[in-house]
Amino acid sequence: MKRLEEKTIHTTPIFQGKIINVQVDEVELPDGKTSKREIVKHPGAVAIIAITKDQNIVMVEQFRKPLEKSIIEIPAGKLEPGEEPMTCAKRELEEETGYTSDHLEFITSFYTSPGFADEIIHIYAARNLSRLEVQKDLDEDEFVEVMECSLEEAEQLEKEHKIQDAKTAFAIQYVKAQGWMK
Amino acid sequence: MKRLEEKTIHTTPIFQGKIINVQVDEVELPDGKTSKREIVKHPGAVAIIAITKDQNIVMVEQFRKPLEKSIIEIPAGKLEPGEEPMTCAKRELEEETGYTSDHLEFITSFYTSPGFADEIIHIYAARNLSRLEVQKDLDEDEFVEVMECSLEEAEQLEKEHKIQDAKTAFAIQYVKAQGWMK
Description:
The structure is a homodimer. Chain A is α+β, with helices and mostly antiparallel strands. Chain A has helices at 85-97, 151-159, 166-178; strands at 7-16, 21-28, 34-41, 45-50, 57-64, 69-73, 76-78, 99-101, 104-111, 120-126, 129-131, 144-149.
């Protein structure tokens, strides 16, 4: 909507990292005043709602340094430069869980923190999983524990704050609304 | 889970902004090797699933500078220092939508981008809305358009990528799974 637009007056680069870049934009507001916007640039990510034949959802437990604790999430990972989200989703599913699927279904895409970051996450569902014969390698600085749980167990983990992640909270409600799991 | 833990060797402060701080932590990985983690610190936020008496969900359209476009989201806002999430949720509902509620129900909390940020968002539902007699002021650099839509309209907006936001995608599935809207 044009009337809400904020025009960039000046961009100050702050940080160029391995994963994120940070900049501060001076903007002209709709009323002509100026303000500053702190912006994190991120390559984007994918996440996979993976349901096993016996109606469990595949989760990974992972230490998240920004939180100083490990939490349980659906499998996910960052896009490599130029990588198709669907290709990335299949790769991350295989690397993180040891499962593969010959049919990933696109569900939706959403921004995780639109107030300060441009990270977008593309959500796929995989409902015809088979085991990889040979386990693939994770990134060398990545350590995850795979687990499978029922919808009831997932909701219990949410109550216990072990599941406390936007994409995973979405996945649980999506699976419930679709009636995919008992 | 202790065996997944990453110990901090050294923290390098990068940026102290009005909303976010950025730091790079050098960490010891579970296998004894070292790596770097780029971390964004955020004060946390709330969002409100507000349902009107005639079964519409209240949304706000807002320009999001990191995305260089406006998107439609459920009402939300950052926590002020020391502010209770429930208090913040009531305040943001009133400021952004002109509605109030004497009973906000806590739904869940989740991290939006646990890979690089500590932002947590607390989700509340307000299902007994009444109109404020006097409209409250928004923050001086905040411009939003309020709208109300049915569940069907919200899902259509999602298909058109006008709704493309994690907390709002969660809200739509939550409302569907609960059967709160037709």
